[in-house]
């Protein structure tokens, strides 16, 4: 197994100096806009990091795709990508847009094109218009002069319709001519780079050269976003750190093929957290393989959780719960934490407008007296449930002060009522 030596963190730090506060660094990129109708989603610059997702329906199924786009948007996705892979899909795009507009879902749609995007966008102008942004993979637009012409054709259509584009390079479909050229150049170096480093360079060169060409063709550079996706955490960090140093385009971030379940979520969180903390990344997507029966919206939930955990954005009230240990054999706190978490999360689509700011609410549900009162005081509302052998009483803290003590068999329901009342009082908009 590979071992990697880590630099020592020991230094002559002094307790006289305050410990620096941790916060994500800011990296100013150009700001672009992805719009549908009056709905404008700013990307880059001082805009918050945006959440994207992608459907897995057959785009030719306009109704099924519109329903999934709506679900993703309701879950919190601010941009939704759909595949546009053939004439049937391209024909369906305006109907998907129409269905969404009719449902009042104004989330911008991004068309994902490979191989035939130049033709589909040319043959289906209504598709080109209904999309708000086109994803172009420079490795899949064709080779040589033909590839250049087809790339230019897509960019010209984007410029004509005033659409943004993402130049989305992927190591699985890297421009093979470019890679071969860089490999040849590398072979003539006195000290050749590792093959992986040549691959990094090819990813970045492909993105930057394509962006330069798109600007030369006439696209506003603010509306060009870049991505260089790979599937390993350390590769992604290395590539994006270099890419961020070499351009000021807004960057779309994500591991490609992150994987399934816990593995995909953890790998994505690990890679994205490092980069976001360094100020790198203007939009994110979690490319999660859904587990059988799992909702597609799970990739949105994880993206929101990453941004919220880093303190970069707030989407849903947070519930802090202790993990439990031998001091409590009761699972009441787990059940209560789950119930409150589900309740808050499920209520958000309605609460977003009814209770502005409710996403910043913090609730604590703790299992015993050890950390219960302390943690509860740090939350807006906290409850410290009785551990094994403790008196059957659950003090409730509101805004850091002990407000009351719940007793008896109905603690769970009574606490939910307290949370409801608090939300109404603190976040309710008075007429
Ligand atoms: S709060 Fe109590 S029950 Fe929960 S982990 Fe800490 S000691 Fe254990």
Give keywords:
13 helices; about 425 residues; 8-stranded parallel beta barrel; 5-stranded mixed beta sheet; about 45% helix; binds iron/sulfur cluster; alpha/beta; globular; single chain
Structure write-up:
The structure is a single chain. The mean pLDDT is 92. It contains 13 helices and 17 strands. The strands form four sheets. The chain has an eight-stranded parallel barrel with strand order 3-4-5-6-7-8-9-11, surrounded by five helices. With 431 residues, the chain is α/β, with parallel strands linked by helices. The protein starts with 31 loop residues before the first strand and ends with a helix. Helix 3 runs parallel beside helix 5, helix 8 packs parallel to helix 9 and helix 9 runs parallel beside helix 10. Iron/sulfur cluster (SF4) binds next to loops.
Strand and helix layout:
Elements: E1 32-36, E2 39-43, E3 50-54, H1 62-75, E4 79-83, H2 87-102, E5 109-113, H3 117-123, H4 125-130, E6 133-136, H5 144-160, E7 164-170, H6 176-187, H7 195-217, E8 224-229, H8 233-246, E9 250-253, E10 259-260, H9 261-277, E11 283-284, E12 288-289, H10 298-309, E13 318-321, H11 332-354, E14 362-366, H12 372-378, E15 381-384, E16 393-398, E17 401-407, H13 411-427
Parallel strand pairs: 3-4, 3-11, 4-5, 5-6, 6-7, 7-8, 8-9, 9-11, 10-12, 13-14, 14-15
Antiparallel strand pairs: 1-2, 15-16, 16-17
Helix pairs in contact: 1-2, 3-5, 6-7, 7-8, 8-9, 9-10
Bound molecules: iron/sulfur cluster (SF4).
Iron/sulfur cluster (SF4) is lined by residues 322-325, 327-328, 366-368, 370-372, 387.
